[in-house]
Amino acid sequence: MAWIKVANASDVAVGAMIQLALEDDDLALYHLEDGFYVTSDVCTHAAQPLSSGTLDGHIVACPRHGGKFDVRTGQPTAFPCVIPLTTYDVEVRGDEVWVDYE
């Protein structure tokens, strides 16, 4: 595992999400009231980018079929999604957001 700087904390407003392109993977960075979270950006049901969906609190909704996930744990919270997202450890160092990425 290797820590990679992915953003400046000040660049992502609370309640917002952005897509991160790291090597061959697309990840999503979410800024919630209680901190930053990172998951795979690909819906496990419809292979759609979750960062193109909607974020309501800690729940992200897929733009294609409306399946939902808890971004803190990756667990699906609404059908048709049943397979969890991959999640990544995140650290904020000053104003920098770092992800533990393989």
UniProtKB/TrEMBL annotation:
Name this polypeptide is given: Non-heme iron oxygenase ferredoxin subunit
Record keywords: 2Fe-2S, Iron, Iron-sulfur, Metal-binding
Source organism of the structure: Alicyclobacillus fastidiosus
High-level lineage: Bacteria, Bacillati, Bacillota, Bacilli, Bacillales
Family: Belongs to the bacterial ring-hydroxylating dioxygenase ferredoxin component family.
Pfam family, one: Rieske
PANTHER family linked: FERREDOXIN-RELATED, RIESKE DOMAIN-CONTAINING PROTEIN
UniProt-listed SUPFAM superfamilies: ISP domain
Source organism superkingdom: Bacteria
Cofactor(s) essential for the protein: [2Fe-2S] cluster
Domain Rieske span(s) in chain numbering: 4-99
